[in-house]
Design goal:
By secondary structure, this protein is α+β, with helices and mostly antiparallel strands. The chain contains six helices and eleven strands.
């Protein structure tokens, strides 16, 4: 299943979708954007069943608990690996692998190793300063950056969803979860796609469709050498996507057998 982002030597309109907070993470974010968005939807749906809820984390044990405030017996306990902390005060991102209390076996160290061997180098830089914000509020940037860091981490770890709470002061933590969610289906993706396209989270929709199929374990077949269309199946339902030369989705829908 060829990666269109690595195969096509075509420009992409910079105004399509929102630019990532840290540009070096863009290839990772583009590949996992759709898959992670659907995993986030599924997890948030579970939390909605709680009504109001609170969260607690044991960083050293890498355990995270979500508890209904109305009925504390209703809870989700899951593995939760701290990936990074993004703070508007010092205006920097601090990777969890640089923290002394994060064990060397923690998944955050896998990101560092990937940065050292494959890139981007930002993954191997303990503390990363914010870029020039151009008037953007540092707290708003931290919130936006946490989403991109979460998606990039999910791409590399092959796990989603993630959680990006604010412990206080505008700081954002990025925590990748390992919690059961309903298996993804092609129909889920087709139903959610109009909303996700309108939200601007898919900067490169063609690459995002490819990444979704790869992570979900679906079969994807490109039509023609120029990647202008693709058919995807999860074994039960199939869909077809058409793309323009910029990788934008021009048509999509379920296929009948």
């Amino acid at each position: 299943m060829a990666d269109p982002g690595n195969t096509l030597n075509q420009p992409r309109q910079p105004e399509y979708g929102r630019a990532p907070a840290f540009g070096d993470l863009a290839p990772l974010v583009d590949r996992a954007a759709l898959w992670v968005a659907l995993r986030q939807d599924a997890f948030e749906h579970r939390l909605e069943q709680f009504g109001d809820w609170r969260w607690d984390m044991n960083v050293q044990a890498a355990r995270l608990t979500f508890t209904s405030t109305a009925d504390p017996s209703r809870r989700i306990e899951t593995k939760g690996d701290l990936i990074a902390s993004i703070a508007p005060g010092p205006r920097s991102l601090l990777w969890a692998w640089a923290l002394p209390h994060v064990p060397s076996t923690a998944p955050a160290h896998l990101l560092r190793a990937h940065g050292e061997t494959t890139g981007p180098r930002i993954l191997a830089q303990a503390e990363v300063p914010f870029p020039e914000l151009g008037g953007e509020d540092p707290g708003d940037f931290a919130k936006r950056a946490a989403q991109d860091v979460g998606v990039a981490a999910c791409e590399l770890l092959g796990r989603a969803p993630f959680f990006a709470p604010s412990p206080g002061g505008g700081t954002r933590a990025v925590i990748v979860l390992d919690t059961p969610v309903e298996p993804l289906t092609v129909q889920d993706a087709v139903v959610a796609l109009p909303r996700l396209l309108a939200s601007g989270v898919l900067r490169d929709p063609r690459t995002a469709v490819w990444g979704l199929a790869r992570h979900a374990g679906w079969q994807l077949a490109w039509d023609g050498p120029d990647f202008t269309a693709a058919s995807v199946t999860d074994g039960s339902v199939s869909a077809r996507f058409s793309f323009d030369r910029w990788g934008r989705i021009t048509q999509f829908g379920l296929q009948t057998s």
